[in-house]
Write a structure and sequence with these properties.
192 residues, alpha/beta, two-stranded antiparallel sheet, 39% helix
Length: 192
């Protein structure tokens, strides 16, 4: 096994970071992308130095830039040091990565998935962040089969890039009240 982030994100796998809105999941992921691109630690954990790619669907370019300025100060770097990190904003744009036949639960990659795969290949990204699952998964989050097939599609990406794909997610109301952070089917936590 080879860790992309020691004890946290394993090469060839899909992981998920879940938490209530506004707690800082996107910020943590942007920090991770910066740390891995520089080969520095993240939250005290060693990272494998690699190229990183993040697609943020809730934060616009201005917010990402403001946030990056603060992250750069933390890591004592500037934008020129981050040629190994690429992020895009998809705020207000549809970005489903798969189409699901609701009668059969069969899943087919969309043009967005193919574009993501091609971008990751060309850039050589080994850590890929998809923020958030609600923006990239348009299936029924409580249908186990749909969830498993979607995570399997992302796992194919992780294996191909020999890296990790990390999803961010918001918990359901019951997941927040119980403290589990779960949303939808338990297949999410069992699949990542």
């Amino acid at each position: 096994f080879r860790w992309m982030v020691d004890g946290c994100f394993l090469r060839g796998t899909v992981a998920m970071l879940s938490g209530d809105g506004g707690l800082g999941k996107s910020l943590l992921m942007q920090q991770l992308c910066t740390a891995a691109a520089l080969g520095k630690s993240w939250l005290g954990l060693a990272t494998q130095k690699c190229r990183t790619f993040a697609m943020f669907c809730e934060d616009d370019e201005d917010e990402l830039h403001r946030r990056q300025e603060r992250i750069n100060a933390l890591y004592e770097c500037d934008h020129g040091d981050l040629e190994s990190s690429l992020y895009i904003s998809r705020v207000g744009l549809d970005t489903p990565l798969a189409e699901i036949d609701r009668r059969t639960d069969n899943l087919r990659p969309t043009q967005h998935y193919e574009a993501l795969l091609q971008s990751c290949r060309e850039f050589g990204a080994q850590i890929v962040v998809l923020d958030t699952v609600a923006d990239v998964f348009w299936g029924d989050e409580i249908r186990r089969g749909q969830v498993r097939k979607f995570v399997t599609l992302l796992r194919r990406l992780a294996v191909e890039i020999q890296g990790a794909v990390i999803l961010t997610a918001h918990p359901s109301l019951s997941g927040m009240s119980s403290g589990t952070g779960l949303s939808g089917s338990t297949a999410w936590n069992n699949s990542v």
